[in-house]
Amino acid sequence: MTRRPDAAFPDVVYPLRKQLGDRRILFITMIAMAIGLLAGVVAQLVVALIGFVTNLAFYNRLSVNFSSPADNQLGLWVIIVPVIGGLIVGVIARYGSAAIRGHGIPETMENVLMKQSRIPPRIILLKPISAAIAIGTGGPFGAEGPIIATGGALGSLIGQLLKTTADERKTLLAAGAAAGMAAIFGSPVSAVLLAIELLLFEFRSRSFIPVALASVAAMAVRIAFVGMEPVFRMPDLGIPTEGALASYIAIGIIVGFLSIAITKAAYWIEDLFEHIPLNWMWWPAIGGLAVGIIGYFFPHTLGVGYDNIAHTLSGDLTVKALLLLAIFKFLSWSIALGSGTSGGTLAPLFTIGGAIGAVLGALALSMFPHLHLDIRMAALVGMAALFAGASRALLASVIFAFETTLQSSGLLPLLGACSSAYLISSMFMEQTIMTEKIARRGLRVPSDYAADHLQRMTVNEVATEEVVSLNANRMLSEVRSWIAEHATGSTHQGFPVLDNEGYLIGVISRRDLFDADRSGNSEIASLINRAPAVVYADNTLREAADLMVQERVGRLPVVLRGNPLRVVAILTRSDILHAHDSRLSEASESTQSISLTPLGWLQAQVSRMTKTSGADKS
Fold first, then answer.
1. CA proximity to 343, closest of 126, 161, 127
2. Superfamily of domain 242-439
C-alpha cells in the first residue's frame, strides 16, 4: 500500500515487486535440508528392511545385509514366497491405506497437482513397510520408487505441521522425494532434475534451491553409511568414434519405440486386472504367483536386481542371457505392477533397458565391426534411453547414468540416445508411464515448461493511454445520460474516478453506475467503497493479471511510480488477452514454416525480406 497525504481515501492497492530472496526462502531451505537428512536415514532403514525380509523369506536367517533372491535353494517353494508377500501387501492396502498401491511417483504427482501436496501421514509408515515386504519376498521392483514416495510424504507432513503454503509444501514434498532418490542411488543432481521434471513442474530458485540442498544433505547421510562409491561400478569406457556415436543414437531411437510398447503393455496388463472378479485386495497375490513362477525358471528376475544392472554394464552376460533377462524381467515386473502391489519402476526399467541396449550393441558390432562399438556403452545408453522414453525425464536420465557409473565419456552418447528416445516417445505416445494412470482420472499433467509470456511483457506495451475518466463531483443522472448518448462511454465497462485536482480516488464500473440504488442527484464519489487497485507502467503483465484476480477487478489504472494517484493509462482484461497475440503469431509462423516444402520455405523467406525492404524504404 502507498498513502497520499491529506486524501479522503488514502489507500491504493498495487502489485508488490517480487524479491530474489527473503527470509521465508531461507526458512524453507533449512527445513528442506532437515527433511533431506531424515529422508537419507529413512532410505537406509528401508534398504535394511528389504534385506531383512529377503534373508528371512529366502534363506531363513536374520540379517539386514542385502542378498539377492536369485541364489535361493527353495526349489518349487519359491513360487509361494511372492504370493505370501502379495497377500500381506493386499491386506495393508485394504485396511491401512490404498495409497500404498503402485510405484509411488504417479501417486506423488497426483498429490502435488490435485491435493495441494497433502499426503496422509500414515503413508510414511505404510509405504516403506509394504514395499519392503513386496520386494523382500521377490517382487521385481526397485526400492527407489517407495523411498521417493516416503520422502515426499515426509516433506508433505512437515509442511502441513508448519502450516506452509501450497507452493511451499510442494517444495518440501519434492525435497523429500529427491533426497530419497539421492540417498538410494548416490545421484543428487539427477534427483533434483527428476523432481523438477516430474514433481515441481517449474524451475524457480524458490523451489529448486531447497530441493538441491535437501539432496546434498541426503547424500551426506549416504556417504556416512556406504561411502562415495558409484552404485553401478563398471570398467572405464573409451571416447566413442563418430560412427559409434551415430550407432548409439540409433539405439536410442529403437529403445524409444520399445519404451512406448513397454508403457502400453504395462497399462494393458493393469487393465486386465480390472476385469478379475475379485476384490483388488487379492490382486497382489495373483501378481505374486506370476512373479514366483517366472522366478522359479529365471531366478535373476526376483528382487531389486541391482546386481543384474551391474553385470550388464560390465559386459559379463552373454547375448542369450541378456535377452532372457530383458524378456522375463519385463513380464514379471509388468504383471506385478499391474496387480497394484507396492514397488518402484526405475530399477526394472534400467535392467530391461540395459539388457536391450547391450543386445542391440552386440548385434550392431557383429554387423558393422568397423564402427568400434562398446557393448558396455550400448548397455549404459539403453538403460538411460528406456527411462527417458518411458518417463520423458530427459535430463534426469542422462545425469543419472553418469552419476551412478561416473563414466564421463558416456555423456555425449547418453545425451544423443536419450534425446532420440524422448523424441520418438513424444511423437507417438501422448502420456508416459508416470502420467497415464492419473491422466485416466481426468488430470492433465504439464509436460512442457516455457517462460511465462505475461512475465516477459510490461504494462506500458499494451495499456491504453487514452483514458476515459469521470469527475468525482459529477451527478449520477448526468453520467448515466452521458453513457447512453455517447458511443465512447457506452463501450467502456469501467472508469477511473478523479477528484478536482486530477487525483485518483477509485474505479467505478458500468454496472455500479446503473445498478446503484441512489438518487440521480448523488455524486459519483458516493458510490466508491473500496481502495483503487493500480499498476505501474513497468510492472509485468503477470503481476497485473495476478492483481486483477486478487482484487476481482477487470481493469487497472496505470499510474506514475512517483505518484500512485496520477493516472496515465488504463489496462483491461482485454488488453492482457490481446498480449497473447504475439505468442500465438510466433507459434503459427513456426507451424507454417514446418509444413512448407524446402522450396516453399525459401520462397516465403524471399517474400518476407522483400516486404521488409519495402517497409524500410517507405
1. 127
2. Clc chloride channel (1.10.3080.10)
Contact 14, 543 (CB under 8 A): no
Strands 494-498 and 504-509: antiparallel
* CA–CA dist 541, 533 (Å, integer): 14
Could you please state the CATH topology (level 3) that the domain comprising 454-578 is classified under: CBS-domain (3.10.580)
Angstrom distance (rounded) from CA 247 to CA 243: 6
Shortest CA distance to 210 belongs to which of 162, 163, 177? Answer: 177
CA distances from 67 to 43, 47, 58, 124, 301 (A): 17, 11, 9, 25, 14
Q: Would you call 479 helix, strand, or coil by DSSP? A: helix
Q: How do the domains of the chain map onto residue ranges?
A: 23-226, 242-439, 454-578, 581-617
pLDDT digits (tens, 9 = 90+) for 51-94: 999 999 999 999 988 888 988 999 999 999 999 999 999 999 89
Mean pLDDT, range 105-111, rounded to an integer: 72
- Encode pLDDT of 225-253 as tens digits: 988 889 898 888 989 999 999 999 999 99
**Does pTM top 0.90 for this prediction?**
no
Domains 23-226 and 242-439 share a fold: yes
Matching residue, cell 498401491: 101
Per-position DSSP letters for 369-381, written without gaps between them: GGG---HHHHHHH
Give 12-26 pLDDT, tens digit per residue: 776 766 554 567 889
Its CATH architecture, for the domain 23-226, is Orthogonal Bundle (1.10)
Given strand 567-572, what is the order of strands in its sheet?
Answer: 535-536, 555-559, 567-572
In angstroms, the CA 336 to CA 290 distance is 8
